[in-house]
Structures are given as C-alpha cells and as structure tokens.
Amino acid sequence: MTRAVAALALALLAVGCARFPDQGSSQFTKRLLFTVTVDGKIRTGREEGSLGLPYIYIVALRLSTDPDPIDDGPLPVVVPGGNGFVAGNATHYVLYNPLASPAYQIYQFRDASLNESFLTGTPINFVEPLLGERVLRFELDMAQLVARDQVDSIQSIQVNVLTMNNRDPQGSGRLWDALGDGRDAGQVNTFLEFQTRQNRTFTNANQGNIEPTGDVADPDLDISDWSVELRLP
C-alpha cells in the first residue's frame, strides 16, 4: 500500500465505517452522490435513552423518461394514510437502517400507489456515521436503479430527503422533516428536480436554502444541509 493510499484509508476510517470499492470509469454509468446533514446527530438507536430505536432517514427518488415532469416528485407523508413515509411520486428510495448490515439499503416501488416496495441492493459507496455524527453519505450507480441499457433513457430525477421518528402518521408525537419549511404549508410540496444531461452538483445553498433549520423540534430529525451530485462517466 502506498503512502497516499494509506492516508486515504485512514481519512475514511476517521469519518466512520466506509465502503469504497475500486471502480474504473469503464465499469460505471451515471453516478449519484448524496450527503444529508442533520442539526443534531444521526440517531442510530445505540444512544443512551434511545431504547434501541433508530430514527428513519430516507432519500426518495423518482426517475423519469420525461425531461420535465409536470406532477409532484416524492413528498413527505404529513396526514394519515399511505405507506407512512413518502407520498407523491417515487420510484425508489434509499433507507439508512443502522439495525441492518449493510446499513444503507436501496428499495424499488412495485406500484404507483407506493404501498409495495422490495429491496434491490446497497449503494456502491457509503460512509456509515459513528455514534454522535451528523452526516449520511452514499453513492449510487444508476444501473442499480434501472437496467444498464435504460440508463440513458432517464431524462430527469426528482429527489426528496425525509426524516421521521416513526412511520405511523396516526401515531402520537410523530415528528418529521423534508425539503422545504415544514412550518409553512405552502412549502411542504418541495423537492429537487434536475435533468441528467451533464455533471451537476446541487446543494441547499445553491438552491436558495430551501431547507431551513428549526422547522422540526427534534434536532436529530432537523435537516440542516444536503447535496446531490450527478457525475457522468
């Protein structure tokens, strides 16, 4: 191992459990890199007083062959009904589940009503946060979401970040956060939408700080920053 590679390995270990396999450019299609930061900490269920119950952290996606869909992308569930975590339109989601191994899991919906989904795999790259850390990071290859020969047919992607303390919208004390100011009913239907034609990086800052802090009472659910990077081969 060279000194440079050793230094990189130590840096990755410093930020948590990481999986970064060697991927040559000829081996991948378009890549999606995500970061999600909360104002408090990522609650894993291992914290004192958490009773082994983690919070729910999800990145919901809608892949479309339409370059400019006119209907909603993924939205938070804020009223009783549905699957308890995402409404609107979604095709896939990535769940951070610290009780599973690996902790990041990719799911695909079977139906437009979003009531049935199935596990399809795990991100090609990810960093699992250490106890008390604030950031989730993972990377997808689009060939994990659609067949490799269909990747170029995907013209746009809609994204939302969803956090919640439970998936029961009828339960007492349910708290949630998503893109947009959850205190303002006019911003609940906020999501990121972009086309897949060129390398782009979207952040909370360059999208007008659409996600504020303080719009949910629990800082472990309060999304304080996010980014989505599209990287072409």
What can you see in these coordinates?
With 233 residues, the chain is mainly β. It has one domain (28-231). Helices cover 5% and strands 35% of the residues. It contains one helix and 15 strands, in the order αβββββββββββββββ. The chain has one helix spanning 3-14; strands at residues 17-19, 31-38, 56-64, 74-76, 86-88, 92-96, 104-109, 117-121, 125-128, 135-141, 156-164, 176-177, 192-195, 200-203, 223-231. Strands 3, 6, 7, 8, 11, 12 and 13 form a seven-stranded antiparallel sheet that branches. A six-stranded antiparallel sheet has the order 1-9-10-2-15-14, covered by helices on one side. The radius of gyration is 17 Å and the shape is globular. The chain starts with a helix and ends with a strand. Residues 1-16 and 20-25 have low confidence and may be disordered.
- Number of domains as seen in the coordinates: 1
User: Overall mean pLDDT score?
Assistant: 89
What helical percentage do the residues reach? Answer: under 10%
Q: Low-confidence stretches at least 5 residues in length (pLDDT < 50)?
A: 1-16, 20-25
- Using only CA atoms, what is the Rg? 17 Å
- Structural class based on helices, strands and sheet pairing: mainly beta
Main β sheet profile: 7 strands, antiparallel
Shape: globular
The number of distinct β-strands equals 15
Question: Span between N and C termini?
Answer: 27 Å
Q: What is the H/E order?
A: HEEEEEEEEEEEEEEE
Q: What portion of residues belong to β-strands?
A: 25-35%
Q: Please work out how many helical segments DSSP would assign.
A: 1
